[in-house]
Amino acid sequence: MKNITIAALTAMALAGGAQAEEFTVGAELPLTGTLARVGSGMQEGVLVAAEVFNKTNGKHKIKIVTIDDESAPAKAVAAVEKLASQGAVAITGGYGSNNILPASDAANKLGLVYITSGGVDDSLVNSGRKNFFRINNTAGYEKAVQGLLADMGAKSVSIVFSTKEATSDLANSVQKALTAKGIKATTHSFDPAITDFKPIINKIKLQDKSEAILMVGYENDYVGILRAARVLKPPVKAMIGVWSLATPKMAAEFPDLMPNVYGTALLPFPAVFDTADGKVFADTYKALYKKEPDYLGQFGYVQSMLLFEAIARAADKGTLKKGGVAEEMRKTDRETLIGRVQFGANGDNPNFVHRMGQHQGKNIVIVWPRETATGKMVYPGLPW
Amino acid sequence: MTELILQALYSGLLQGGSYALIALGLALVFGTMRVINLAHGELVLLAAYIAYSVESGLGLNPAWAIPIALVVVSATSAGVYWIVSRIRKDREINSLILTFGIGVILTNLILLIWKADVRSTSSSWLQEAFVVGPLYSMRSELIFFVVSLLLMGGLWWWLSRSWYGRALRAVSSNRDAAKLMGIAPGRTELVSFIVAGMLAGFAGVALYSYGVIQPAYGGALTVKAFIITVLAGIGSIPGVLLGAVLLGVAEALTVTLASSALQELAGMTLFLLVLFVMPNGLMGAARRRG
């Protein structure tokens, strides 16, 4: 009888040992409010990462608890604090530098790692926080835009940008860099609330007479600017944007506005995933959401997967509650869907360089950098 | 420079027409009931999303959404009235909180039904340029500018000539005296909300046809409509048009002559300036003098 009891207890202990250890990761994302669209896109990537991690890592499990920050900084802080109280070991997510800054500050004070791909403002990495990490930055977007303009050989550019912090930073950096290269760069800032862009485009048409228009804003701004340009037809050779523009969704929703428009793009469309990681991501994404993955999903996936891997390593070493996650994040060095990711002392990824895509028919063709291009750029090329 | 200013004036005029159409419903309810319907922007947005559904789901021109939008939005507006009419004390203040809450609920309903994506018409015909000499606009802007003028004319006629319009004005002036004259205040106020809903229906379809919509956009629409309503002078329909056009032109000229980043500031400065000089609004003072 005694032997049977010992055998049963041993079996139970072994079974318990074989059971995966579960960690709660908080996802603080804007699912309502002005950033709901991007927040929802990123959430898809976060959940795909958890699904893939849980399937492939037999030893540890990740449980995602999501709280909507309602696109508001105060709610973002409250979300982080609530996630911490619910036992989150780290935070993934956040969108919009103005939300991310206070939210990641709160996470830092609570000793939680906070990783994002939704904020490119440099102040996020310049405030000396040890627990903050991000995989993309203004510099990566700037290099891509500059590279494309250099390939085009444009001599003058009009930069139309939203007065939000991240967009202003990027526009001003690009202007400085272009001016230093002898390219005439004229800026036109606009309030995020404006809807009629005709007066700005008319200034570009009659005064700037630039070869290209660079739009630094968001989806609604791009639609407004492209519509105004389609009406006024300024004599430019290219319409270029940054995030959220060279996407299959924009091609499908605005077929008359998108032809030949450029924007940052991680992958061509139809998407081609030639790495094992990419294929797993795409298959899981399609299985969960019955659609093609987009760039928000990819960013959400990469940031979360890197975080989950760091949590697993820290758990293995028994340093999870001793700052081990941040330590493991700093040791990260691997190829991902957005290229090689490493984290500097400030938590930024110095390797990040975006790619530029162009809407060509119903497809998105990567046209910069040349080494990863999937087709030639159509230049001059306009939607009208 | 002349060409730039002419285009700015033209763009401002059209933008003013758009603002006026959005503000009309709010101005009507505010003018007749002294209720600031903070869910008005969401009602406009609801109509815009109905137009989106009609275009994307049925493949029809957004204009075909007008009948559905009128029914759905005026019914929703009647629902808002029903809730507001439950208030027994301090209606002016309590209705603010109540309609704000309704606005939040409507925003989230829109988000649930239509998701957070940016939407706008894909109709090439509506987006095509309409050119008169050096002046450019989208066809949809011009069409709905004319619609806006017609609706304002119709509303003005209805308020000043029809029995219900006069009844509304009577309730607005003195609720008790109106009752003594055989007017049922509740019913006339309900009519006011239904008409405001219909105007929001037109405004929403127009907005979808030349602008961009997102679920969170309702609050900004309400603010703009409220500014115009106050600028106009309480209850003045011509004032709404004048205020909206002034605002549109001031914004467009600011973009052209200064910076587009100052556009919203210019609008608010105009608002404060007018209220400082004419505390009753543009047409409110004129009416009082008359």
Description:
The complex is a heterodimer of chains A (384) and B (290). Chain A has a five-stranded parallel β-sheet, with helices on both faces. A four-stranded parallel β-sheet of chain A has the order 7-6-8-9, with helices on both faces. In chain A, strands 10-13-14 form a three-stranded antiparallel β-sheet. Chain A contains twelve helices and 14 strands. The longest helix of chain A has 23 residues. Chain A is globular, with a radius of gyration of 23 Å. In chain A, helix 7 packs across helix 8. With 290 residues, chain B is an all-alpha fold. Chain B has one domain. Chain B is built from 13 helices and two strands; from the N terminus they run H-H-H-H-H-E-E-H-H-H-H-H-H-H-H. In chain B, helix 1 runs antiparallel to helix 9, helix 1 packs antiparallel against helix 11 and helix 6 packs antiparallel against helix 9. Classes of the chains: A alpha/beta (384), B mainly alpha (290). Chains A and B meet through helix 2, strand 7, helix 7 and helix 8 of A and helix 1, helix 4, strand 2, helix 11 and helix 12 of B.
The overall strand count of chain A is 14
State the secondary-structure class of chain B. mainly alpha
Q: Report the mean per-residue pLDDT of chain A as an integer.
A: 90
Please list the strands of the largest sheet of chain B in the order they lie side by side.
1-2
**Low-pLDDT regions of chain B:** none
**How many DSSP H or I helices of chain A?**
12
Oligomer: heterodimer
Unreliable stretches of chain A (pLDDT < 50, length at least 5) are 9-17
The level-1 CATH class of the largest domain in chain A: Alpha Beta
Structural class of chain A: alpha/beta
Helix content of chain A: 40-55%
What is the architecture of the largest domain in chain A at the second tier of CATH? 3-Layer(aba) Sandwich
The CATH superfamily of the largest domain in chain A appears as Response regulator
Coarse morphology of chain B = globular
What is the total tally of β strands of chain B?
2
Largest sheet report of chain A: 5 strands, parallel
Strand order of the biggest β-sheet of chain A: 2-1-3-4-5
Number of domains of chain B: 1
**Beta-strand content estimate of chain B:** under 5%
